[in-house]
């Protein structure tokens, strides 16, 4: 068995101090101190949710055209397209393009939710050259805007009891080739307060679905009719 | 040769040694006090009641006196399309409800910025200072009527029995006056507006009364 981990002079000072606790602690071997430290560390993390039950192992696979419940919304992802022009939407630089995730959105709660919460619900990754807003904490890149297909307006607030057809719009650097595939991340959020902020709101976006989807160039209605 | 300054004799600090029983007793007393405090706060949740807004009920066409303004609510109208003063037409799968307000600030300039709709279906419909459901009155000067319109997007089933709430602070309505307006809407209003696609204008906020159509 290994001997005490503390050096002899420190143990001698502990004996002189008369403290039983210090003397016994310094007489312990290194292995026992390590195990004790790990237990203490685990106990401390428990205070911040370290022992909370894990609800799932990882993100599930996102399936196109299948509605998914990701509080506070129900989202259905239909397709991912890219285009260089969208009426009513303005790119930060000429020559850039839009990558749009076309969805159906429902607010499943009993109160309206602002658009920034919807922006945290669906993000994009694995696409080169996406323009990212600074300071976002959500996994992936957040949409530059979320536009209603019906009138091009920004979808905010998202009211309960209504079903919206909307596109999450991501701006891509025009010097990069248009993507042929993209990974869509869908996040569930939690209603509550923060550790340092007692305002109640939708927080902690956690990725619950993930899908690698094909990206094609958007076609106008006239193009689609010409092909049919 | 320097003579050392006389220094005050060092008096050893007297340590009051308490028995282990006293220490445990004191700790138990502190824990018991914390527990009793928690029980009192939990059993009598006065915080919500103390901070609740002072709800001032009123109806369409009547003036309600608030701490910060006199508010008069005009006749509501609705359609599936609205024409905001500052943007292009907006369409909805539900109904856009628009409610004209006349605000006369009391005492000092006031910027009323809170609005929400309590739907007859039990849901709460958010109104923000911009977006598809919006209320942005601008600053009302004391004694000068300010005209503004609330526009809120709702499903038709929210309209019968809906109440509009107007307040001063957009983020915090605690312990302040809050107007609660019974809009007097019926199922017939909801059905008519859900079938209406003529755009309803949302006049710009102004100190001048909006032009009548």
What's the structural blueprint in terms of helices and strands?
The complex is a heterodimer of chains A (228) and B (213).
Chain A: H1 8-17, H2 20-26, H3 30-46, E1 60-61, E2 68-70, E3 73-83, E4 97-107, H4 115-121, E5 122-125, E6 141-142, E7 145-148, E8 163-172, E9 181-192, E10 201-217, H5 221-227
Parallel strand pairs in A: 1-10, 3-10
Antiparallel strand pairs in A: 2-3, 3-4, 4-8, 5-6, 5-9, 7-8, 9-10
Helix pairs in contact in A: 1-2
Chain B: H1 20-43, H2 46-51, E1 54-59, E2 63-65, E3 69-73, E4 77-84, E5 90-105, E6 114-118, E7 124-126, E8 146-154, E9 163-167, E10 177-182, H3 187-194, E11 200-202
Parallel strand pairs in B: 1-10, 4-11
Antiparallel strand pairs in B: 2-3, 3-5, 4-5, 5-8, 6-7, 6-9, 9-10
Question: What can you see in these coordinates?
Answer:
The complex is a heterodimer of chains A (228) and B (213). In chain A, 21% of the residues lie in helices and 33% in strands. Chain A is of the alpha+beta class. In chain A, strands 1, 2, 3, 4, 5, 6, 7, 8, 9 and 10 form a 10-stranded mixed beta sheet that branches. Chain A is elongated, with a radius of gyration of 26 Å. Chain B folds into 2 domains: 20-51; 53-202, Immunoglobulin-like (Sandwich). The longest helix of chain B has 24 residues, at 20-43. Chain A binds chain B through residues 88, 110-115, 150-157, 159-164, and chain B through 87-94, 116, 121-128, 130-133, 153-155, 157-158.
What is the general shape of chain B? Answer: elongated
Radius of gyration of chain A, in Å, reads 26 Å
Largest sheet of chain B: 6 strands, mixed
**Helix and strand element order of chain A:** HHHEEEEHEEEEEEH
CATH architecture of the largest domain in chain A: Sandwich
Largest sheet of chain A, in brief, is:
10 strands, mixed
Please state the CA-atom Rg of chain B, rounded to the nearest Å.
Answer: 29 Å
How far apart the termini of chain A lie comes to 82 Å
What class would the helix/strand composition of chain B place it in?
alpha+beta
Q: How many DSSP E strands of chain A?
A: 10
Determine the structural class of chain A based on helices, strands and strand pairing. Answer: alpha+beta
Secondary-structure element series of chain B: HHEEEEEEEEEEHE
Count, helices of chain B: 3
Backbone shape of chain A? elongated
Question: Which two chains share the most extensive interface?
Answer: A-B, 21 and 26 residues
Percent of residues in helices of chain A comes to 10-25%
Question: Can you tell me the CATH architecture of the largest domain in chain B?
Answer: Sandwich
Average pLDDT confidence of chain B is: 91
Report the β-strand fraction of chain A as a percent range: 25-35%
Mean pLDDT of chain A: 88
């Amino acid at each position: 068995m290994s001997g005490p981990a503390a050096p002899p002079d420190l143990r001698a000072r502990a004996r002189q101090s008369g403290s039983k606790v210090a003397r016994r602690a310094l007489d312990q071997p290194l292995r026992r101190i390590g195990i004790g430290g790990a237990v203490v560390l685990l106990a401390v993390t428990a205070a911040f949710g370290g022992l909370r039950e894990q609800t799932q192992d990882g993100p599930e696979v996102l399936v196109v055209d299948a509605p998914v419940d990701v509080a506070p919304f129900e989202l259905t992802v239909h397709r991912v397209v890219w285009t260089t022009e969208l009426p009513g939407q303005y790119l930060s630089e000429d020559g850039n393009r839009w990558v749009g995730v076309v969805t159906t959105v429902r607010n499943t709660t009993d109160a309206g939710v602002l658009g920034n919460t919807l922006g945290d619900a669906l993000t994009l990754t694995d696409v080169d050259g996406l323009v990212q807003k600074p300071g976002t904490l959500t996994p992936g890149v957040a949409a530059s805007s979320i536009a209603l297909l019906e009138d091009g307006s920004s979808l905010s607030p998202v009211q309960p009891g209504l079903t919206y057809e909307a596109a999450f719009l991501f701006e891509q650097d025009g010097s990069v080739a248009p993507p042929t595939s993209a990974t869509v991340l869908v996040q569930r959020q939690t209603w509550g307060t923060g550790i340092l902020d007692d305002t109640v709101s939708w927080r902690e976006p956690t990725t619950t679905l993930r899908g690698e989807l094909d990206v094609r160039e958007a076609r106008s209605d006239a193009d689609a009719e010409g092909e049919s | 040769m320097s003579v050392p300054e006389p220094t005050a004799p060092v008096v050893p600090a007297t340590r009051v040694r308490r028995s282990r029983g006293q220490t445990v007793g004191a700790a138990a007393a502190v824990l018991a006090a914390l527990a009793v405090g928690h029980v009192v706060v939990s059993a009598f949740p006065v915080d919500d009641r103390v901070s609740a807004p002072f709800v001032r009920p009123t109806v369409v066409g009547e003036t309600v006196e608030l701490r910060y303004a006199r508010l008069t609510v005009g006749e509501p109208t609705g359609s599936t399309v609205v024409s905001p003063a500052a943007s292009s037409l907006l369409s909805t799968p539900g109904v856009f409800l628009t409610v004209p307000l006349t605000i006369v600030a009391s005492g000092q300039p006031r910027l009323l910025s809170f609005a929400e709709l309590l739907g007859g279906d039990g849901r709460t419909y958010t109104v923000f200072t911009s977006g598809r459901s919006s209320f942005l009155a601008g600053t009302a000067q004391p004694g000068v009527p300010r005209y503004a319109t609330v526009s809120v997007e709702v499903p038709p089933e929210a309209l019968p029995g809906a109440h509009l709430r107007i307040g001063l602070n957009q983020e915090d309505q605690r312990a302040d006056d809050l107007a609660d307006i019974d809009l007097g809407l019926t199922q017939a209003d909801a059905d008519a507006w859900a079938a209406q696609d003529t755009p309803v204008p949302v006049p710009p906020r102004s100190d001048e009364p909006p032009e009548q159509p």
